[in-house]
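Methods — Computational structure assignment.
A single polypeptide chain was analysed. Its primary sequence is given first, followed by the predicted tertiary structure written as structure tokens.
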Amino acid sequence: MKKLFLFVLLFTIGVNQLIAQNLPHDFGQVTEDELKMPYYDKDSLSEALFLYDIGQSSFSFEDGPMRVIFERRIKIKIFSKAGFKYSKIEIPFYEQDGKEEEFIELEGNTYNFENGKIRITPLDSKNIFVEKKDNDLRYKKFAMPDIKEGSIIEIRFKISSPYFFYFRRWDFQKPIPVVYSEYTTKMIPLFSYKYVLQGTNKLTDFKQFLDPGHERSFNEIFWRDQVYVFIKKDIPAFKDESFITSINDNIIRLDFQLANYINSFGVKVEIMTTWPNMIKKLLDSESIGGYLKDCQDQAEKIVDTMNIESKPTIEKAEKIERFVKDNLKWDGSNTKFSSGKIKEVFKSRQGNSADINLFLIGMLRAKGIEANPLLISTRGYGKIKVDYPFENSFNYLLVDAVIDGQHIILDATDPLSGFGMIPTRCLNDVGLVLKKGDEPEWINFSSPIISSIYYTFDFSPTIASDALTGKFKILSSGYDALNYRRKYIKSTSEFKAEALSDNLTLVDSIQVDFLRLIDKPFSIKFNANSEIEIVDGKMLIAPFAGYCIIENPFKYNTRTYPIDMVYKKKRNYTSTIHIPEGYQLFSKPENFSLDNDDVKISLMAVCINENLVKVVGSYEFKKNVYDASLYLDLKNYFKILIDKFNTKVILVKK
């Protein structure tokens, strides 16, 4: 029987490997073996699998204005219900300045193997809809039909784009494994692109050749397309997405940037030149330099009425930043370019991130404070590659204020944030100062603020009602206070869910203090009950009431990229437990202390007298970002916190 089982297992693995090596890549070709594949041999726990992901970008101008044609086809195997989410498709496309990317083709099929036959269910165009993401970005969205465990879906589409400056990137790696990924680019001599391969220094295959098709021409320039084929096989899933800036910073992918092009007059126009030239171009543009000049003119009329002339420079900056925060509302758009004229922004009292921060620069300059735009990339947008002067590496603009010889980074989009508190979406390593000079000036920045939460608990067990009555106080500062304030203002029910741990029942209302006094810690007070846990006659009390870490976020044994905590965090717990009459202390958490360059952890439990037990704990992550080499250390620190801080106080009858 054991030999038979071993044979079946080896046969199944062998079939999987044979399938992986001989997968058809043509649309509409799905085999019985693919549909019967029970799992992927290189990742048996994967919920789904990209059997192939094949794309191509090329230029077309024979039938009218020049366009970039992007084609893509994908085939995905669904192994389990958890993989059903990969049957819900979103395809991004762009619309800007009256020009829109156009879908030339879009079709899909779902394949299932039933009663010995392959059944095909096509995608119904009636179930495709468009969602607007922001001013420029749109999504074609649809769910593939008839999805079951074991289904295979195939999709292909073709987009015609008027934006020949924008060449789509290619992501080889996904959250699930990929058997085969191929991207083909057909380049013409009118455009010169640079490409950057991220996440690996080796492809499975790379081909370069002249298109054997017909010769093409433009403005008496004749050529055959230069074809580049990038191939990567057997790509593992990108699984560990905890504590990273963006998945885009770490996956295996290919990026393109237009370096230069030949215009209709036959003149070569440089796009990717040098950082100083790019800075000069942006400062001379109407959307940054021109808008900033208008801001300064407007600001001079305002700052003279603020009565801050005699105050120290830092206080002037604080007053000016608060004025901008209180008088201009952010519309939610992240951008490095202004939307129009400052008078129009002031008229509506609303603007995008660049509108607001450029006006803050104008206000600071009007009061004699050195301030410059600071170009950054937000966390979800990806890291800046400082070796390549790509303008599209940036999508946001902050303020670099030089006060008493120090660079203080500012942002005025959130009225609930304190002075110098940069939105967490902007905490992404480095920024480029927009200031004319021979060399670019880069500023590495992170939040200097340690965000803290202080928990105070007072527990009194009531034997008659089997209830543990507690008095709770939560005092937060920094980004933790900001998060609480946002939730409270947005939704009291969401705030209530955030403030209460799962096992608590609120006795009365929650009291909050210092909601709008953002320079003070945000205070939460309430009374709540929970059931007394009794096991084998022993009363078990969790001293920190479920407010400490209960699950380790680090699941793997290795990691190749940094652990980004966003900002420094500190937690403090003080729990007082009243021992009821007739009971005595049986056991308490062991004292523990650890202090090094990375973390500080302490836990102390003492019996004050026969009626009172006090447990005090704290931990602090001292860095914003930890090197990948410290992954296992951090995993161990979290294990310590889970083990030590969840140890219960145990009471027994006398």
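Note: The two ends are 58 Å apart (CA to CA).
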